[in-house]
Amino acid sequence: MADYKIHLLVCGGTGCKSSESQILAEHLRSSIESQGLSDFAQVIGTGCFGFCEKGPIVKIIPDNTFYTQVKPEDAKEIVEEHIVKGRKVSRLLYKDPKSDKIVSDSKGMEFYKKQVRIALRNCGVIDPENIEEYIARDGYASLGKVLTTLTPEATIEIIKKSGLRGRGGAGFPTGLKWEITRQSPGKEKYVVCNADEGDPGAFMDRSILEGDPHSVIEAMAINGYCTGASNGLVYIRAEYPLAIERLKKAIEQAREYGLLGERILGTDFSFDINLRYGAGAFVCGEETALIHSMEGGRGEPTMKPPFPSVKGYLGKPTNVNNVETFASIPVIINKGYEWYSSIGTEKSKGTKVFALAGKVNNVGLIEVPMGITLREVIFEIGGGIKNGKKFKGVQIGGPSGGCLTYKHLDVPIDYESLIAAGAMMGSGGMIIMDEDDCMVDVAKYFLDFTVDESCGKCTPCRVGNKRMHELLNNITKGNGTKDDIDRLINLGNVIKDTSLCMLGQSAPNPVLSIIENFREEYEAHIQDKKCPSGVCKALMVYEIVPENCVGCTACARACPVGAITGERKEVHRIDPALCIKCGACMDRCKFNAVIVN
Amino acid sequence: MSRIKVELKKKDVDTIREICKSFNNLPGELINVLHKAQHTFGYLPAEVQEVVARELNVPVAKVYGVVTFYSFFSMIPKGKHPISVCTGTACYVRGAENVLAEFKKNLKIDVGETTSDGKFSISCLRCVGACGLAPVVMVGEKTYGRVSPEMVKDILKEYDE
Hints:
The structure holds two protein chains of two kinds. Chain A has 23 helices and 19 strands. Chain A is of the alpha/beta class. Chain A has five domains: 6-113, Glutaredoxin (3-Layer(aba) Sandwich); 131-340, 3-Layer(aba) Sandwich (Rossmann fold); 351-434, Ubiquitin-like (UB roll); 439-526, de novo design (two linked rop proteins), CATH 1.20.1440.230; 540-596, 2-Layer Sandwich (Alpha-Beta Plaits), CATH 3.30.70.20. In chain A, the strands form six sheets. In chain A, strands 12-11-15-13-14 form a five-stranded mixed sheet. A four-stranded mixed sheet of chain A has the order 2-1-3-4, with helices on one face. Chain A has a four-stranded parallel sheet with strand order 9-8-7-10, with helices on both faces. In chain A, strand 11 and strand 12 form a beta hairpin. Chain A is globular. Chain A starts with 5 loop residues before the first strand and ends with a strand. The mean pLDDT of chain A is 93. By secondary structure, chain B is α+β, with helices and mostly antiparallel strands. Chain B folds into two domains: 10-69; 81-157, Glutaredoxin. A four-stranded mixed sheet of chain B has the order 2-1-3-4, covered by helices on one side. The relative contact order of chain B is 0.12. The A-B interface holds A 13-15, 18-19, 52-55, 198-203, 206-207, 238-240, 276-282, 293, 295-299, 314, 355, 357-359, 363-364, 395, 398, 429, 431-433, 437, 442, 445-446, 449, 455 and B 26-32, 34-35, 62, 65-66, 69-73, 87-94, 125-134, 136, 143, 145.
């Protein structure tokens, strides 16, 4: 085997792949070959580095050189300059936007400084399609340790003491869930990995499955040993073709290596994993709905109890955990619960992965210790707000979560503090909004989503959310009345109290938290009939500034509804009653005479 | 919307039968069967659903219920170049709505519809996971990042025959 001195890691996550990172990797390979360096340098396709904003990423090991926004055309230069002559290609290096200095070593980047990567430990490090690279990083060591030296009870005890809680959003203690499943009577039990990441703007689970599928497989096997299950199922979104492909490959490799299948590692324990595909329904992230969907039916939730740990898939005890939860398990067993529980806060241990997106400079995937503040995440790791705009709000927890404001910037990120602030941990979507975003419209956007995704089984969610959506629609159209805010609050609370599952119980959260934190914006829409951020079209008024108008008639000719009148070389005017706010006049005017209020 | 009537050929019926058989005709495999059937036919007209129901020995209503429940399944054929506009939160805050409106305006169809020549169809999807490139549009397998309404015409032009 060749003894490679230099490794070129090329990101092969969905984000970078859509910017041609695969072609880039091929170009790098052929350049290396044409330089006769095939035994010296190696190109490896890895999972996501997290720094999606500046993708595609190429990282060179051993010196950690971090190249950003690399195009296939740049491959030749990287190989000829960096690999052959040892000179870094400075135009592709990362430049810190604050100090304007070039940071060539990824360890020196603000983006990575405060991160603690546990669930993402192998993402952007190993080739996810090669089991040996996973094994070389202590992979499957925990499974071996558990099967040969620990009893199921002792293993569950480690997970319990680590303080790990469900990363899907609800935060149920993982060890306790395992124990309940173990204690539920029954010969046939199931382990289910919930990879139905339906939260718009969140891609943590997908990145883990794409970048480190074996960590999930290993943890599921450990879970099977602890709970007494011999069947594992991964419920994964059909919209994630790359993750499915990598997971399938990984399962096959694990079977070949005897790490899945009959009598694993020569012990009496047998375990195997199969895939089940979702078909695009947000509610299927709820565990009872997920189970109904796996059974081939409509993914409608049912009342709990009985919990799946007692009565789940095919009526058998079923342990359902989220991808990120599973990915943390092997490390906890390897390094011990003392190490894991030393990270984080008193009640929330360890780390959490967030998908940082929206109007922030460094969009990407991050993993931070619990207890870190929103300010650190947004302004240090995230690099602040794009284009120097003002920060307005941050939406945490997706359509079930809440919207927090600058008042909350110093709130520590942990399960309890976020709930106290009116948001929730959720699965890990974190969307940053700036001064240009209209919060009423944001509330409408999330409700739009839940109305669309409500399964329709229970009335409060099916009808209630629809009515809330209508109220919001009226407000953004300028037809809101004084009582609408109170109506929204009352209705929202009824829906929260009476819905069947978490989807309905949390659907009003974005609306309610936005009323709580941005009430003045609602009032501006209702009383002044104005959208302060200029987003709500119906509330815009197009006007002509008389001083700037030269009477060229261009706007009048452009107007599709004849709302603009005026003689040649005279000031024109727009009839607001006829105007449909299409903006055609504004596009056409060369004198900046058309403005929006 | 008027329902599209399809006449299945014998070979199509056989294909569906085979798909069902590959899943041992188990009712619990309904979703997997539908995935495969949609992959083969491009969509799931009522006639296909009837055969699936017969083969898995479940009521047609159950199959129809599942098909209409999940957004991934479609009962109308998609265009030759299906356009999917990401309306995930990250794309939304970076202006996906305006991009979607521009596609609708240019093609004169709504979301979920196909142009009369069968060339384009528009759908929305929730997060492709390329949030760093927001707003994102997919045409077939190709991903376009940082799309602005001004780019829409040029994107469509790429598919001129």
